[in-house]
Structure prediction request, 584 residues.
Amino acid sequence: MPRPLDTHKPYARRRAWTLLGVHLLFAAHIAHWKLSGRTLAPLELNELMVTLELGVVTAGFAFMVLVLLSVLLFGRFFCSWGCHILALQDGSQWILDKLRIRPKPLRSRTLLLVPVGATLYMFLWPQLSRLAAGDPLPDLRMHDDGKPWASFVTHDFWRNLPPVGIALLTFFVVGFAVTLLLGSRSFCAYGCPYGALFRIADRITPGRIKRVGDCSSCGRCTAACSSGIEVHDELEAYGTVVSSSCLRDLDCVAACPSGAVGFGLAKPTLFRKLDKGRPRKPWTLSWPEELAAAVVFLVGLLVFRGLYGRVPFLMSLSLGGLLAWFTIATWRSLRAPHAAFGPWRLKMNGKWTRAGKVALPLAALVFAWVGHSAWVRVHERRADQAFDLAMGPQLDPTERVLRAREAASRLNELRAISPLPPANTDLRLGQLHLLAAAPGGERPLARAVDRDPDSAWLRLLLARAQLLAGHEAEATSTVRRSLELGARPHHEVASSDWVPALLAELHGECARSLWALDRRGDALNHARAAAALRPNDADLRCEVGSLLLAAGRIEEGSAELRAALAIDPQHAEARERLIATGEL
Prediction:
């Protein structure tokens, strides 16, 4: 069918300006957060999960409710006039049109189930798991900015968003790559979990595209539809568009030369009797290919989700769909005399085209990368399990050290094979070294601090590793920086004493972990270092005395306990230990 006349451009321009305005609002929102430190909580639709699972009402949940209400009343206007992902897809299609690249849209029955499955997994499965476990549903409540998941005003704007680089890569995959290889608005059809919810709501909305005049069946409305709907066919059969894929972009309205297409109230699709025997566009895949695509998609989802500790769920859905179609297209190119993938002809009359000759080695590279990614995911899983075991409760000190060493070995294996280890790998390695009170944690924790320089907590971990390594000066510098970032001692002390107080606390943690591992000499050294930093702290003097007594050094231990009582005559623990030794 020929391309339609450009009569639909006025709506397209208005929609383009509206979507540009959405992105400008995003930029203004982020700028306000950066300048003021606090702002409106992100209007993320996936925060519906936070409300369902934790009961915390957030701005994202309120926004999702408003969008659903708008779909129930007027149809899926939000998708085409307010969704930033749709803007990326339509922008990509505009670029491809300018380059005269016309991808053939994929029509797959099994991939249409992906958004439904994603919706059930995100929103329904956690509730079913809760009910199966006998746990009650959470009470709805509001959180202020001092609590996790602040409801409406927050200092943690990026709390549920991926790093900037991953976000941009996600936009490229779900916007450009999916449009190029699967067709216009294919993420809406094959990946968007919110679109699945909106499809259900669309079936009962009265606001619809409908026939408002005499139709000449020219088909320009169908040609103008970027969602692949047979608009003129549905208008002729029902007087209205019944497909729940209709996004109400109004391009079909503008494209009609006789003004016979408009938007208005009509009977919802749910209450219509649809003719299931009417001819439809042919599906791209045969049933055996559909089943193969489903298997490949599931494999791709398992491989890509969380790969390198970075790939988010929505990107993994898109990558799984792309891999499924790529696998089928590659198989076809090896067996059939004619084959194509996206806008490229790979084979014609049994002969490879230039694009096909490039595609073959590229396919080998893609499948090799997928195989390597699967191997990385296996190692990531093993490392996660080993780390959880090492950090778990109810382990005696000796077993904990063994578990920590095994987990560190798993993490180092992962670092060796992964081109991009998970962002928390260095932090975990540092924690495992601290758990075993072993040297070597300083370097990975320094890398973790470089990755997140504004974290006071990370700097305190680094300072503890530096103390274990005997680097007192470096630890003091690290503690000073952590104080600048908001760290504070556990006990109330004058601000002039914050540095020695924090260093003393860290020395105390080192002493306790070393003592538990029966490294008594090292433990005593750290305990004495803590007491030397705060010689007038009765608790620290008592701790040194207790360790000396446990080591059999009664005279030295008693002296420290008496010093603790001299500082605080009411110190119960020091008094009890002296009585037990017969010194009081």
The first helix runs from residue 9 to 36. The chain has four domains: 6-206, 287-379, 424-530, 535-584.
